[in-house]
Request: fold
Amino acid sequence: MIRTAKPLLGPAAVLLLAACASAPMHYYTLMAPADQSAGGQAAPAAVGASLPFEVLPVGVPAQVDQPQLVVREGGQGVALLGSERWIAPLGDEVRGALSADLARELHSQDVSGLPGNGKPVLRIKLDLRRFDSAPGSYALIEGAWSVRLLHGGHPAALACTSRVSESVGPGYDALVQGHQRALGELAGQIAAAARALGNGQTPACPAG
Reply:
């Protein structure tokens, strides 16, 4: 009888395969808890009529437009975290979080995708230029945004750039919460311009 030798896996290989098979996947969202106001602070009371708004699709840098979290690792190095992932595409996550924060700030609703009824509406556009994640250090967003009041044949508009950085503690939960706070602060800046436009005032870009 001829017996065929079967290859044996060494202990190290067995442990490696077991680790790969059992590595848990963690999913994160930029949507802050429903009872948390944008930026972690109470939204100001609405002045005048609350106008509906629409948030256009958000542009994000190609370097971080990945299912996995992309983080900085000292110096200029970056890492793509295989088991730490966004629950949805990053652009959709940013847009959803911004929409929810603006709804709280403006005491209004996002009517994106709904048929127009001829009433005034605020159109908001955000293009992120940076979305930096440094665990245990900071969460930073930087981008160009605009608010346009669509009303009749004479729309009013404002275009600005903002840079918001939040200090974060160790761990990926803290990092994502830092990005939630940064987006909340950005939403507050956009909402201030939107309220001014809605009240017939001349808005200004945030200082700095």
